[in-house]
Records
---
Amino acid sequence: MSAVPPPLPTPQEPVDHPELLQLGTALEADEPCLRADAARNRARLLEAAARLVAERGAEAVTMEAVAAEACVGKGTVFRRFGDRTGLLTALLDHSEKKFQAAFLSGPPPLGPGAPPVERLRAFGLAMLRRSADELELQLAADPGASRRYVVPARRVLRHHIEMLLRQAVPEADGELLSHALMAQLDPALIHHLTKQCGLPLSRLEAAWVDLVDRVTEAGTAR
C-alpha cells in the first residue's frame, strides 16, 4: 500500500473510509513490489529485530545488532530500512494496520455505526491501551520533533479524530482541536504518566472520556 498520506480533507469531504496506510519507509515507497528474495530478507531482518526487542528491549535494537542477529552485513539493514527509526517503524507496521482497520471498518463503537462522540471515546481508549502494550517500541520509533507530525500513520489518526469532531461539533475548529486531543494520546506523555508518575492506565482512560465529553458538550451547548 502507498505510504503517501491522503490529502487534507475539507469540511465538505467525508473521510470515513481513507485507505489503510503502511507505516513503511521512503525506501519501501519507491519499490512497492519487492522481489521475492528481497521480501524474504526483509521478513528475516524484522524477525531478528523482534527477537531483540523480546529478549533485550527496544533500546538493544541497533542496525549492527540486527545485522548480527540475522547473520547479514550491516549495509543490508541500512539498504532495507534507511535508519534505526525506519527499522523500528517497520516493526510497528502490522499493529498499525490492524488498528487502522479496526477504526475504519471494524465493529462499533470503534468502527463505523456508532455516534461520533462514542467513536471518539472508543478511539482514544483503544489508542491508550495499544500504546501501553507497545510503549517501549513506540517511544524508540519516535521520529523526533521535526518529523513527528508528518508521519503518514499519525496523520491518518489525527484526520480520523478531526472527522469525528466535525460530525459531533461542526462549528468547532476540528483541525486544531484534533491536535489537542492527539496530544493526550502521545506515547511520551503516556510513559511519563504511567511509568514516571505511577498513574494507572484506568485514570488516563477516564480522563480521555472526560476530555471528549467536555469538548463535545461545550461545542453543542453554544
---
Amino acid sequence: MSAIRLLVLGAVRQHGRAHGYQVRNDLEFWGAHEWSNAKPGSIYHALKQMAKQGLLRAHEVAPSTAGGPPRTEYEVTAQGDEEYLRLLREALTAYDQKMDVLSAGVGFIVDLERAEAVGLLRERVRAMREWRSSVTEYYTPEEGPGSLGHIGEIMNLWVSSADFGSEWTLGLIERIEGGAYVFAGEGERPALVLAEGQENPYATGEPHAEDRR
C-alpha cells in the first residue's frame, strides 16, 4: 500500500474541494514530504489518476490568481470516500505497514469514531503479538542475536520493532480511551488545513509546473 493515495484523499476530504496546489501545500504543512513519498510530482499524478478511477471528481474553475490556465479543483466521490476509509482502516490495523503508511493513518485517525479507532489499534497489537510469537518459535530473544550468528541481528531488529510497536500502540489506545482528541461525531475539530492564500511556514518552495493548475 502506498501512503500517497491515503494522504491525497484525506487532504482533499478535509477541504471538501481543493485544487492540487492546496493539497501539496497541506501535505508540506504536515511535513509529509519529509516522512513519505508525497513529493509534488507524486501528488499531482495521484490526483489525476484517482480522478480517472472515479475516486475524485474534477471541476475546472476560474484561472488561478497566479495566472496560467484554469485550475482544476477536486472533491472526493462516494467511491473515493469508501476507498479512503478502507485505506485508513488498513493503515491502522496491519502490523507490517511501512512507517509512512502508518503515519498517514495516525494523521487521519480522528476521521473515525473513537470506538472504532480503538478497535482497529487493538487489532494491530494482536497481529503484532501473533507475528512475534511465530518468530520466537525459532528465535529466542533472551539468548541474544548471537545465537543465530550475525543473521540473528535481523531477527532481533524485527522482534524489537514489534515490541516497540506494541508498546507505542497501547500508549495511543490509552490516550484515546482517556478522552484525547476529537473524533468523528464528537463535535467540531480544529482546522488542520491551510486557508486559501495562507502562508505555509514549512513550504519547500520547490517549483513545479502543476502548481498553477
